[in-house]
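Quick one: structure tokens for this chain, please?
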Amino acid sequence: MFSLPPFTSGTEGSSETAWFQMPMYLSQNRELLVPYRNTFRRPLQHKLASLLVSTTCLALIHPAAAQKNAARQPNSSQLNIQVNDDRMTLSMARFPQIYLYGPIDADAPQRFEALMKSGRIRPGSDIYLNSPGGSIDAGLALGRLFRQGSMVTHLGTPRPPKQSLYINRSARCEGACAYAYLGGLYRWAVSGSDRIGFPTYPAQQTPAPVTAYLKDMDIDLGMLTAASAGSTPTGGSSVDPTLWPNGDQMLAKGLANNGRQNLIATYKYGQGTPSLELKLADRNGEHEISFLCKPGGAEVTTRDTIGAVRARQIVARELRSYFELNQQENLPQQAGATAVDQSVVLHRIYPLNQLPQLASAQAMGAWVRDRTGIRYGFAFEVTGVRKVLNDFSNACTQATQQHS
């Protein structure tokens, strides 16, 4: 099932978030064990000999196998790190999947960093968390390592052993784990029965290391005060309430971004020429739409920065390209895309008499469609920057009228 990715938008200093619900479907591999039946009859001595050999082999192998299995057992007293970077994982997800589960101990950041330095944990990896908490300092250190590696944080449980009879698919991330989650450059909101709990503190009483960390992670401290959790400590208890947001609340509070950073809109009016630039970065690259007011119309330039090799491949497959407004094709053109450095670039002239439609747009994008009907590009919601769109539209209309 294919779902559109969430849109995230906002002006500098303010943001508005909208999203599409993206159901997650998890599959479970089941193994059917069929007993082997020997249809050949053998003399009794052959059967006894076979039994003796089998018993001897088992006696020799069993201690080694037991030690190996014991080494694979998770440690309940520390954070366990499971790295899934096999060929199938990389072909499907494109990035390694790292599962962190168990209590966060003081040495967890050092073990994680060692795997980063060895290359086992790569930049951009997906981090799946399932931890009851632990050392707050270690959680903050893990979060900084996640941000350093531009990693993506989720809640999730590791693959169960094949022999496991009980499978708990729900993940829980609390305390130090929730702080580590905030270190993800891209953070996916909880879904299903997963839960995340953020420690909260009364106003002006948040510990200094936590305050500094939240600032560095660009998280609004006000979203994690005791008041934001909906309750305050009672009876003189020193235990602060825990905020347990759902997915929608995480997006609204800026605790999650579902794979996209905020849309940045920059409007300028220089030397009588209005211009507007819209930029958004997500896991797939950086995307930009710019408008420059000219007498013949607004010059539109779109840039989809996805890497030089990928850009050339897409342009080579092009059948047609177009600017998109409210999920409708606009200004289609054959062989109109070019590969410039790391980007797929489109140039169009937007008619002046259609500027009001631009100002009231809900979404914009740019796409290249190939001969098989597959399209490549981006789109983002622009309702959060409606004022800037109106300012540009009005200024461009007035500027062209003055020059006519």
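The chain has two domains: 74-253, 264-403.
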